[in-house]
Amino acid sequence: MAVAEEAAEGGGGDLERRVMEAVKASEERGDPPLARAVEVGRCVQEKGLGFPSPELGHVLVSNLCFSHNMPSLWKLLDQAMASRLIAPLHALALLTPRVIPNRRAEPEAYRLYLELLSRYALSPLSIEVGSCRDKIIKSVDDALQLSHAYGVHQMDFGHMVVLSILSVITSLIDCTLEDCGLQLTFRYKHGDFYADEGHQVMDIDVRGSSDEKRNKHREQLRRTNVLLAIEVVEKITSNKRAKLFLRLIYLNMPEKFNGLLERLQFIESHKSASQALLSANHILDSLSANVQKAMDWEYQLNKHQLLGVMVDAGPSSYLSCNSSGASRAACWISFDMFMENAMDGRQLHTVSAIEILTELTKSLKVINQASWQETFQALWISSLRLIQRDREPLEGPIPHLDARLCMLLSIVPLSIVPLVKEEYEMPSLISKGITRSYGNGAEENNLASRKHGLVSSLQVLGLFSGLLLPPPSVVNAANSAASKAAAFVSNLKTGCVGNMLHLIVEACIARNLIDTSAYFWPGYVVPSAPSKDSLLVQESPWTTFMEGAPLNGSLKNALMVTPATSVVELEKLYNIALNGSEEEKSAAAKILCGASLVRGWNIQEHVVHIVIKLLSPSVPPNPSVSGSGSHLIGHMPMLSAILFGVSCGDIVHILSLFGMEHCMAGRGGPVRSELTLDCLLLMRNSRIALQNSSAVGRMDGITDPRHSTPSQPVYIDSFPKLRAWYFQNQACIASTLSGLCNKNPVHQVANKILKMIYRKMTKAGTVSGNPSSTSSNTISGSPVNTTEDAHQRPTFPAWEFLEAVPFVLEAVLTACAHGRLSSRDLTTGLRDLVDFLPASLATIISYFSAEITRGIWKPVQMNGTDWPSPAGNLLSVESEIKEILASAGIHIASCYPRGMPPMLPLPMAALVSLTITFKLDKSLEYTHSILGQALENCATGSSWPSMPIIGALWTQKVRRWHDFIVLSCSRSPFTRDKDAVAQLIRSCFSSFLGPSITEGSHFSANRGIHGLLGQAMADQGLRLPIAPGFLYLRTCRTFHDTNFVTEVILKLVLELANKLGNEWACSGPARLRSGRLSLAAAVSRVQEVAMLGATLLCIAGGVLLVQVLYEESLPTLLLSAGEEKLVGAGPASNILEGYVMAYMLILSGAFVWGIGNTSPAYTSVYSSRRARVIGIHMDFVAAVMEGNISVGCDPATWKAYVSCFVGLLVSFVPTWVPEVKQGTLHKLASGLRGWHEYDLALSLLERGGPAAMDALVESVL
């Protein structure tokens, strides 16, 4: 910009004329710099301008560069900056683009610029809001091109200050590197924004000297300027304010901060090529350390207060995971609870267990401030414990071992994949830091790569021999994995002894998490004594299949029981299932649903996707070729085989773990009362939309062309018959039926069905659909003709049949209730209905469940005459249930008074009678899994105590299922009994924390994870005591009042924190305190309490209950007047209560929302509500801090709660802070400063995003 233009912009040439005249006059008088500054200031005042004056800054700098480049003018500029006639930062910004491009030609000016920069770069800057400030902001922005360089659309004061410092630092580094002869490769360099205004001589101190002497002096000046520039940068970055400004950029503009890190790493790698850089090595190290400290800075609570001593963000003392024993394992309890909870096949996750576990791993790693090795090690150990708890499952209709193995060998490795991949996608400079030469051991450990941490965690697993013992059914697979490693290492063909580690390693190798170098780990290959079996080399049936052998009976059977080993084998099966003959399609589908799906752990995700893909075969390019019917007709053999194959309990469970069960909507699998078809379709379509738009889903990364094909949403309107049946069925469930009418087509079908099933009934006569109706409402119209062909069946479509089933059920139930139909005939008719159309079983269950919930049917006596009697073992089953619950610390009253006959509501009696008519046949396994869950759901919906009767009847039928049935029945009391729920929750805390808090002993071998979940639930029969955590996980979704659960958990958490606080603060001589609880131990135990409380709460109610906790439960608790305040609470207890509430709140949010950016699917289900919920709670806290709301809790509790909540927020989940309104953040920060928590207030604001930078800089300056 020309001088005239700048002068015009700065207030016109009149000011410049007056200023220069005053300068000239002062020089002639020989005035000192201060007097000259006074004269210049008078000129500004005469123009009616304020200070600091942007106009004066323009005049001085524009004349200095380069019209009047005299020493006196430099001194005047210095004095004007010191006197605040001009803003120092403004003057430096104007000098930077003028001096830096000319530093080689004018080393004297560059030296003086560096001196001014060293002196004034971070000087206090106080400019009142107004036109003067706006002019300075615009001038600095224009001079340094900040908006263009850093992409800031609206430059404010805070951004101007922070970005000016960064701009000057990077510019000086670039100058130094160029002056050292190094070729810069950065994307943005100082020369890109600063125009070289040409060489103009600035003759300062060397007039009258010879040219040679002058040139030598200037060359020496150039060399020293190189070092001086780095010294100035180091001095600037060592300043506390500069560190704060750099940290603001690091947190809120990481891509711009990465440019600075890039330069520092460039220096580190090239300094050996420059003698000048080598000579300044200590300065460069100090510079790097300053920048690293800016990145690593953490707030510190006031250490003069007890709270500041307890809450230390440093990793060495903050969390109990850094201790040993049970406390260390307790840090990772959420891993164990999530995995065990996922083993309940009755629930359905809306996203896959892989995504949930990935987010949980991130959260626990941050919360526990652990290294990646520690995190992965805890993850593996938790999954191994999952296997050991059910090594030999109780015999029953629903096995779980395969689902547990799927969790360990498929879900866990796949959850690690995005974590390792994420490291390579992160900005490498920020993720890896600058240099590790000055970092301590903990920092270096935290900076270690994730892949290295994974490898280390696997190597350490070898020490846990007890956990690595494979279940009996997995021994051969483990030995095969070990033998594979031995053959790779030394080409040995003998057998080897394998364990679960070998299977884990193979699973990780299959996902490219590690490589085959793991085979060479010490002790990994353990040869076994040769045996005849080990010397026999059996060819895999998959080799035979790949060589082209036909899928005949023997090969098909072998492939069904042998897992595939590669995706290539699966691809061949996939093509056969789509394009083979009818026999081949069926065989290929059965093979895919066999061992490859259940135990093909290394490729399980591929099998799952192929199976799901086959259920929706694409429409052929030329539909006319396939005929007039649906293209699905040609795939019926394949579809039938897949639907039947995936219907068994464990496969359904495995599909649910992969988040694929919603893709099976309408397949006829287990019916969940809380799910509807439209809900499943909505889940499926939402998932497909996310996958098609972003392809970020966990399984979408598989390199398979079939998976990259966009899927289309499915709507119920596309299937008119399905839609008609579905809404008809929903209407029948929603309200009672009003009888039959012969004019209604659906009712006509119901009459025909009743005629069909009536042939099996021994009772003759007509059956009325409505006991109060006349003959016009009769179902059959006339008695059944007994000579009619018994095998004759109606021929109407299945959809019409299903539509009429509810009316048939209402008719037969009504007839039975009024004595016109015997219970035996009712059961026979229902069974005949199911045999004719098995799909009607789902309608029977849903209708009976609705009728049971309505509670309008009278109970019937289960006396052995009309209905089957449980009397033979009812009392023993009830006694066993009470014994199981008592072993877990829950005591309940008897359900049935002595002498009273057992009774059930009529629909429940009919349903249980129907269930016991099915034989225990392998082909009916899916039926038993449906019926068992249906009975439990119906019993849950009924106010009548039904489960002991149901259990007694089923234990009579299947004695070998006795333990499984009784254990399942023990879950029933928690449905309606709040006292039992409260006892269960208290028992969970007692078993996890041990008796230490109440009994005074702080060491217990039975506490922690083993105390909460047990070590083996089913080793050689039912073993007592039953772990309370297991009961909680299997019953929490049936709790009638989840808000009550929140209240109980919060009350227990506060009660335990209060006891710990009182115990730590116990009075007495110091010599008598040796056995008391230390402060560190008290804080550690409080964290365990909060960890368990948050985990129990999240599992019981998920994201909705956490939302209630933030918005209602915790604010209400803080606002309460403290009527239920625990007796004897002292200051330490009050502080611990506030701390534990804050800790539990942060944990609960982190568990359901994640700690940062999540996948689109996870965000849509969980994290999307986070900003709103956090904002509401923060508004509440800010309102209290401002005095607009009064809390009823102790002031110490409130202060501890707020300080800890904000401290944990900025330490563990800083990504939540920018989602809070800026006004709320400012109110909170102001309140914290009032408590003298300046660092905490600062840390809160600096994480508020770019929008908070202006307010933060204002508060600092």
TrEMBL record:
GO biological process, one term: regulation of phenylpropanoid metabolic process
Superkingdom of origin organism: Eukaryota
InterPro entries reported for this sequence: MED33A/B
Record's compositionally biased regions (Low complexity): 768-783
GO cellular component, one term: mediator complex
Region annotation Disordered: where it falls in the sequence: 765-790
Protein name, entry field: Mediator of RNA polymerase II transcription subunit 33A-like isoform X2
